[in-house]
Structures are given as C-alpha cells and as structure tokens.
Design goal:
It contains 8 helices and no strands. With 199 residues, it is mainly α. The radius of gyration is 19 Å and the shape is globular.
Length: 199
C-alpha cells in the first residue's frame, strides 16, 4: 500500500470515489496556478491552464500507477502542458510589475525580512521580483522547468527527472546552467561585501 496520501486518493478515485479527486484538486489547485503562472505570466491564463491540467489528470486516471509520488505525476502533466502552451509563441519576454501581489504566482521572496519593510525595501523587493520573472522568461524551456521544480517546488533531482522524463544527470546539468544564469542576472541584488577598514 502506498504511503503517499495523494497517491492513495488517486487510487481511490480510480475505484470511483469522486470525493477523492475533489480532495486532490483542493490540495494542489493553488500551487498549480502558481506553477503555470511561472510559464505564461498571465493570471487568468494560468488559471485556465491549471484547470486544463486537472482535466487531463482526471481523464488519465485509469493509466495512473503509484510508482512515483502523485505530485511527480501531476507536475509531469503540468510541465508538458505549459511547455506546449509556450510553443504556441504567444508569450514574449516581459518584465514583471514591481510590487505585484504574490498571490498570482510572483516569485517567493523568502529571504526578505519578516518585519514591516521600509519603502526602500519595498522598491528593492519589486525590482528583485521583476528580475526573477525576466530571468525565468529568458531561460530555455527545460532549464526553466527544472529550476522552478527544484527551487520553487522543492523537488529532488530524482523527482524532477521523473517529471521531465529525463535522467538525473541531465537534470543536474539543467539546474546548474539555470543557476549560473540566475546568479549572473541577480548579481546586482546581492549585498556588497563589507570593505576592510584600514588600521
């Protein structure tokens, strides 16, 4: 018996339990909208894509096998769907709006202090959010997917390899290249090293 509660719900749905699928949807819908938004940068379209993903999962339920976590299966469907959407060519690189609310999939700025930010910190946070959005837009498709799955969704290399249907070594290479690009793009936002004071 699987120890993944999501997989258990999916297997219950295979047996005809509609409430199990509703539970899966309620658990993952918000995160899925955010994930889709990282690809298309359009709130309403991200919601539509997330709905499409769950429709595909619903229709593919009979083919589901719990050899991996349900989340891996879900994000494989979502990644393929989002990459196909990008290949339609309608999504040009665009800058994010500084200060945009995080609820529609803007980058998570976990490193920011928990206290009330100053106006200067608000401005810097907005600039950083915009830079992250532009960076993600400019990465090649597979690099973007690997980086988002690793850094934002917290997946292991093994899970990402399963999601992207590639090898672990290929995932490591994708994440490394994306991380190098990110480090270069976000270098202006790194705090300056303290200068040594001469005696």
């Amino acid at each position: 018996m699987t120890q993944d509660p999501d997989a258990a719900l999916m297997l219950a749905f295979q047996r005809g339990d509609q409430a199990a699928f509703r539970a899966l949807y309620e658990r993952h819908a918000s995160a899925m909208v955010g994930y889709c938004h990282r690809f298309v940068k359009d709130g309403p379209r991200a919601e539509e894509l997330a709905q499409d993903v769950f429709v595909k999962v619903y229709r593919a339920a009979h083919r589901y096998s719990p050899r991996a976590r349900f989340k891996t299966f879900l994000y494989r469907v979502a990644t393929n769907h989002c990459l196909n959407e990008l290949r339609r060519g309608e999504y040009a690189v665009r800058a994010a709006t500084p200060g945009a609310p995080g609820g529609d999939g803007a980058p998570d700025l976990d490193a920011l202090p928990a206290h009330q930010p100053s106006p200067h910190q608000d401005l810097e946070a907005g600039r950083l959010a915009a830079a992250v959005e532009v960076l993600l837009d400019r990465l090649p498709e597979k690099q973007r997917a690997a980086l988002v799955l690793c850094r934002f969704e917290g997946m292991s290399y093994e899970e990402i390899a399963e999601t992207l249907e590639t090898s672990v070594s290929a995932v490591k290479s994708l994440v490394h290249r994306a991380t190098v690009a990110a480090a270069a793009a976000l270098a202006p936002f790194q705090p300056a090293a303290p200068r040594e004071v001469e005696p």
